[in-house]
Amino acid sequence: KETGFCGFGDSCKFLHDRTDYKLGWQLEVDANKKTNRFDDNSDEENYEIPSDEEHIPFKCLFCRQSFVDPVVTKCKHYYCEKCALEHFKKSRKCYVCGENTLGMFQPATDLMARLSQADDHDDSDT
């Protein structure tokens, strides 16, 4: 068995046996054992499904009032239709992130559905 490294690299005509090295999957298993040695249930406890509710605001980001005819930009920011058009006259960029909106404001049907669900839920509580 030869030891050391060959200066020719992959173009060397001799076989350099390096069976004492670990394979990639073996290195990953060892690394996972080191990180999970304190937590056996770490995968189950740390697994969380992100919710869309966290990303949908309840008020217009421009006027800070409840939505009136809400629209959404291609960068997923929500505004009142009037506020979006008013800001678009001054700047073609999104008010929040500065990305070019290209004047494309889609009706925010998902936001309207969530707001109507919230209103229905509030009405049923009283």
From TrEMBL:
<keyword id="KW-0863">Zinc-finger</keyword>
<dbReference type="GO" id="GO:0008270">
    <property type="term" value="F:zinc ion binding"/>
</dbReference>
<dbReference type="InterPro" id="IPR036855">
    <property type="entry name" value="Znf_CCCH_sf"/>
</dbReference>
<dbReference type="GO" id="GO:0034247">
    <property type="term" value="P:snoRNA splicing"/>
</dbReference>
<feature type="domain" description="C3H1-type">
    <location>
        <begin position="1"/>
        <end position="19"/>
    </location>
</feature>
<dbReference type="InterPro" id="IPR001841">
    <property type="entry name" value="Znf_RING"/>
</dbReference>
<dbReference type="Pfam" id="PF13920">
    <property type="entry name" value="zf-C3HC4_3"/>
</dbReference>
<dbReference type="GO" id="GO:0005684">
    <property type="term" value="C:U2-type spliceosomal complex"/>
</dbReference>
<dbReference type="Pfam" id="PF00642">
    <property type="entry name" value="zf-CCCH"/>
</dbReference>
<dbReference type="InterPro" id="IPR013083">
    <property type="entry name" value="Znf_RING/FYVE/PHD"/>
</dbReference>
<keyword id="KW-0862">Zinc</keyword>
<dbReference type="InterPro" id="IPR000571">
    <property type="entry name" value="Znf_CCCH"/>
</dbReference>
<dbReference type="InterPro" id="IPR039971">
    <property type="entry name" value="CWC24-like"/>
</dbReference>
<protein>
    <submittedName>
        <fullName>RING finger protein 113A</fullName>
    </submittedName>
</protein>
<keyword id="KW-0479">Metal-binding</keyword>
<dbReference type="InterPro" id="IPR017907">
    <property type="entry name" value="Znf_RING_CS"/>
</dbReference>
<feature type="domain" description="RING-type">
    <location>
        <begin position="60"/>
        <end position="97"/>
    </location>
</feature>
<feature type="zinc finger region" description="C3H1-type">
    <location>
        <begin position="1"/>
        <end position="19"/>
    </location>
</feature>
